[in-house]
Amino acid sequence: GFKGLTITDALATPQVGPGANTSRSALRAGVDVLRWGQAYRRAMTARSRLLRDVKAGRVTRAQLEPGVERIGALKQKLSGQ
Question: For the whole model, what pTM was predicted?
């Protein structure tokens, strides 16, 4: 029943394992913001896979929109509007 913004941490940890589609799994689980820390290359690879997943329909707009709305609401709240 949690309705707030969800943010991951440390998706680049070795425990995740090589080849795991962590981004897709996290989004399907309802995570709004994916954080990769210092692992820039892994983050860019994840971004590319995620964009392919969206284009192929494996991740849908309906799955992404609630998170976009929660991020926008938090930004608005933090800006004092």
Answer: 0.74
